[in-house]
Write a structure and sequence with these properties.
43% of the residues lie in helices and 15% in strands. By secondary structure, it is of the alpha/beta class. Helix 2 (25-36) links the parallel strand 1 (14-16) and strand 2. The N and C termini lie far apart (44 Å). The protein binds NADP nicotinamide-adenine-dinucleotide phosphate. NADP nicotinamide-adenine-dinucleotide phosphate (NAP) binds next to helix 7 and helix 10.
């Protein structure tokens, strides 16, 4: 609650969650926060497609009936009748079916969502979204992953909203994140190893580039994403108040192009 209060107080205006985040606890906590505040305009998004079953196991389904039920439960946990964006959470190409698009359009007509979205870090899925009816894309675009660069002008030309998830590149350039001193550190370490067993070497290389900007790691990462004219929002995760504050402050100082270019291959 303290993190959220500080964030919104400092001007952060977009909060993202999902039913599979801590087995619904992420939505429940966000719902509690959203209700105890008289909030300024905050954009809220959640997801369908990944969920959890009664025994706490993660499940995956893009069947309309399952998504409809999952979203109804999400709204109940959030204590809201509407969210701004509802993302398909990590769909594969075959999940981008007409009936799935129709489900999202129906949710718009019902007034339960404002915009439909896809959250994917897979290029084939994002390619397929360019000419789809999807309004918003949560992609991976950060100092460590520039694959989506070529798609950004195409999304812009079609009037789509683009959100960078993992805006901080999961802090792989900052070894302190992964010291297993507490449960959070251990969790970050295991997650990073699962995603890329060689992440430490990649992080070291990235740190050397970051040093050329004269910034610290997370500050450079945030300023890099905030500096892209075709990215509407840079989302990040943090468990620490000082990180929350410094990230928001960094987002207010977009990186100049000459420093942004350092992260692109020669
Ligand atoms: N990860 C995914 O696969 C994924 C998928 C779909 C959507 N998303 C969305 O994207 C959001 C962000 O993703 P993410 O949390 O995985 O990645 P991220 O924001 O790129 O990185 C989070 C990591 O950065 C650290 N960090 C934050 N601020 C820092 C600072 N100022 N200095 C040093 N380290 C800092 C955090 O540790 P501390 O807690 O110590 O600050 C955490 O280890 C998610 O919450 C979700 O909304 C993510």
């Amino acid at each position: 609650m303290a993190l959220l209060e500080a964030a919104v107080g400092d001007g952060l205006n977009y909060l993202d969650t999902g039913p599979s985040y801590a087995n619904g606890e992420g939505e429940r906590r966000l719902g509690t926060f959203l209700h105890r505040q008289s909030l300024p305009d905050v954009i809220v998004s959640t997801k369908v497609g990944t969920n959890f079953d009664g025994s706490g196991r993660r499940t995956r389904s893009f069947e309309v009936r399952d998504m409809e039920r999952s979203f109804t439960d999400s709204l109940a946990r959030l204590g809201r009748e509407q969210v701004d964006i509802l993302y398909l959470h990590g769909p594969s190409l075959k999940d981008l079916r007409d009936e799935v698009f129709r489900f999202l359009e129906a949710e718009k007509s019902r007034g339960r969502i404002v915009w439909s979205g896809v959250n994917s870090f897979e290029m084939d899925v994002l390619d397929a979204c360019v000419d789809s009816p999807i309004d918003a894309l949560m992609i991976q675009y950060n100092v460590a992953d520039l694959r989506a660069e070529r798609l950004l002008p195409q999304f812009r030309a079609r009037g789509k909203i683009v959100v960078s998830g993992t805006a901080l590149a999961r802090a792989i350039y900052d070894p302190r994140t992964f010291l297993p001193r507490d449960r959070a550190g251990l969790w970050y370490l295991l997650r990073a190893l699962k995603g890329d067993p060689l992440f430490i070497a990649r992080g070291r290389r990235l740190k050397r580039v970051i040093e050329q900007t004269g910034d610290t790691g997370a500050r450079a990462a945030m300023r890099f994403v905030a500096g892209h004219p075709l990215i509407h929002s840079a989302t990040f995760g943090t468990t620490k108040l000082d990180h929350m504050r410094s990230n928001i402050e960094a987002a207010r100082a977009p990186m100049e192009e000459r420093h942004r270019r350092l992260f692109f291959p020669a």
